[in-house]
DNA sequence: TTGTAAGCGTTATCAG
DNA sequence: CTGATAACGCTTACAA
């Protein structure tokens, strides 16, 4: 292993000087800088992470905690995170957490011992428990979820997004729109979206009809059937995740209902899943990658990351159309 | 920060003794063990990763390099990796590499500087370049790919699996079976699977008809149309990835061909994607999670990881049936 | 069974 | 502008 002393002796300077030029500090002549750099290059010197970590009080790893649920969403956020992290010379350590956050404490502990520069939570709220095990030195931020008050986060206005989505369906002429809600425990995302739907329906003077899924594919078919049982004349269903939306499209197909002729379907998030069904799913887009980038930027900016609301966008593809009855 | 000296003085012993009990070494009385453990617990002592890493020559991170391509596959392997790693007290650092492996060298460098205990490559072959940047101390293993000779790997017998898949279609009565191949550059997976298909077709005295995709969803529809242009009477298509298989099912639907009545479709890998289309995709399963677990076990076993061939399995779901003409 | 002390490779302080 | 030197927290001979 080549150490800073090797570089120093080859360049004919002291280790301290090497450290200075390597870290871009001030206090050396141009000439020594050149000599040191030559030596560094010649010897392929790389500072030792552990020695450095021991001295300094933090490392350059950023932790990301992603739920195994909604892989596609997390994956897109990750792209952004990774990009921004790499740009800033940071490495990303990803932990996937289970349904009941089984692994989260373990990961957080690891991240703390690695003196992580910060951690990003995807689609998960920051809990006091998390704050506690992480210690107070490590900044924390949530992505794709937010409550607008308590913790640093980057997300969209979920209430408004769901409101807009419902409005779109209403504008198309639909009057009976069912909502396929997500896990009700997710009060910060699903409950909020649900509110947006209810508001739009109420404004239109239409009754809300909804059933709970859990955001995942498999939860959608049964929920869809409950929805249809409640109102067999539904002409549109708004699913609060693309996975559920895709499942609805497929299930409708299976039971012989044509999409979008008989029933329109609208998804949520605009993950890759939305384009992996036929017809491709109309959905509400969140700027997932950008949110990931922003998360690392804010995390590293040292100032309080605060809350950031990103714009959402309606994307119409093949699953939304006016209802048959509107002709 | 609480250090080993704090624990030592509280327990009334030396730092060396604390180190010994913390690391489960020998050489202390039961009584001191108890005292030290009490002190550790009372002070919430945690050994400093960096100080330890500086002394010892390796850390307990396992690196995983996954292609952004085929997220679903990587995700399943990751589950296994994570599980086994956690079991052994290791942390997992995930790096996603681009199409042209853009990030791979950077990640590998990071992993080396973190003195990673080993790195796992998902669906990627170990190149001399990788070996070089990683240094010779870090063990490396590939998962879901193998060439059976040169590098440590865990995978299935791709030739045989593709052969079996083709045989299945043949046994159903199909005679005109098109192959939707993957990236031809992937000589270790796609080229091998292609060989299996060719062998089965040759044995059946049927002509091979194939087109290249790149394993991803979007590459499939155009390739499917080329396939259909070559032989409009195809009654089955075998796609060498579930994403392509799903795309074929959807595209067939779009152009008005019924699956499986008019055309059967068989996928490959048995990722979650296979169940996210309607009808659900019949496919060849690889024990992805198990492969991930095994990868870490072998990586950490210190002996040469060697090559391991896992069993594959045909899973018939809704997209394969006898051809119409067989009645 | 236990303690002392010498590093591991860096960075930071303080002289020069 | 540069060089000694003292930590950082831990492990491990080597002594006792």
Automatic annotation (TrEMBL), chains A, B:
PROSITE patterns: HTH_LACI_1, HTH_LACI_2. Keywords: DNA-binding, Transcription, Transcription regulation. It comes from the Bacteria. GO terms for molecular function: DNA-binding transcription factor activity; transcription cis-regulatory region binding. Coiled coil: none annotated. Residues 2-56 form the HTH lacI-type domain. The keyword Lyase does not apply. Transmembrane segments: none annotated. Pfam families: LacI, Peripla_BP_3. This is LacI family transcriptional regulator.
């Amino acid at each position: 292993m080549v150490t800073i002393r090797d570089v120093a002796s080859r360049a004919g300077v002291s280790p301290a000087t090497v450290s200075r030029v390597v870290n871009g500090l001030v206090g050396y002549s141009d000439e020594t800088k050149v000599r040191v750099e030559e030596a560094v290059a010649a010897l392929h010197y790389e500072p030792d992470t552990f020695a450095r970590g021991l001295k300094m009080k933090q490392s350059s790893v950023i932790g990301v905690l992603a739920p195994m649920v909604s892989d596609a969403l997390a994956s897109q956020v990750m792209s952004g995170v990774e990009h921004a992290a790499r740009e800033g010379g940071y490495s990303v350590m990803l932990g996937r957490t289970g349904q009941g956050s089984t692994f989260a404490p373990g990961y957080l502990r690891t991240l703390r011992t690695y003196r992580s520069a910060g951690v990003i939570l995807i689609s998960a709220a920051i809990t006091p428990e998390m704050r506690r095990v992480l210690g107070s030195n490590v900044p924390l931020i949530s992505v794709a979820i937010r409550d607008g008050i308590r913790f640093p986060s980057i997300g969209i206005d979920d209430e408004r997004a769901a409101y807009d989505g419902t409005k779109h369906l209403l504008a198309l002429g639909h009057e009976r729109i069912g909502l396929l809600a997500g896990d009700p425990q997710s009060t910060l995302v699903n409950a909020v979206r649900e509110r947006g739907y209810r508001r739009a329906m109420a404004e239109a003077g239409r009754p809300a009809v909804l059933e709970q899924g859990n955001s995942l594919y498999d939860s959608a078919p049964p929920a869809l059937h409950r929805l249809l049982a409640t109102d067999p004349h539904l002409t549109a269903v708004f699913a609060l995740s693309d996975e559920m939306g895709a499942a609805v499209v497929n299930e409708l197909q299976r039971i012989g209902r044509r999409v979008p002729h008989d029933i329109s379907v609208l998804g949520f998030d605009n993950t890759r899943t939305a384009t992996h069904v036929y017809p491709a799913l109309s959905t509400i887009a969140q700027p997932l990658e950008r949110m990931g980038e922003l998360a690392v930027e804010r995390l590293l900016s040292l100032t309080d990351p605060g809350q950031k609301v990103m714009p959402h966008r309606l994307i119409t593809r093949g699953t939304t159309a006016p209802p048959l009855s509107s002709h």
